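User: I'm designing a mutation panel for Catechol 2,3-dioxygenase-like lactoylglutathione lyase family enzyme and want to avoid disrupting the core. Could you give me a predicted structure to guide residue selection? Please restate the sequence first so the numbering is unambiguous.

Assistant: Good idea. Sequence first, for numbering, then the predicted structure tokens:
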Amino acid sequence: MNTDLKYKVLFVKSEETSVKFFINKLGFKMYQKIEINGKVYPLLQNENKDLMAFMENAGKDEVNVLNTDDCLRDYYLFKQRNIQTLGKPQYDHKGLTIGFNDPSGSRFMLLEERDYTDA
């Protein structure tokens, strides 16, 4: 049994705008819609089969962290897909990061975790 399925909730300023951005620009697919407490939320899936629910949270300016195994590969892929708000790759204490926004202003950070401790 494969238990590697990853599930993440992304809090965004505009659910509709963010979902369109992730499908049209980042290549995610609509997996299904789920109902939680009487509200229906879109559940998208990326090429790694990770699932992401999008919930509108217009009052807060949160940074959603998305993990990757290759930040530089994704940086050049995002540049090819003309992501307008794409930042430059930067190193921080967790690893290599890239910041970007969707068209509604929701903020995201792509993170390739790295261990900087000496072996």
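For picking mutation sites, this is relevant: Helices lie at 15-24, 71-80. The chain has a mean pLDDT of 89.
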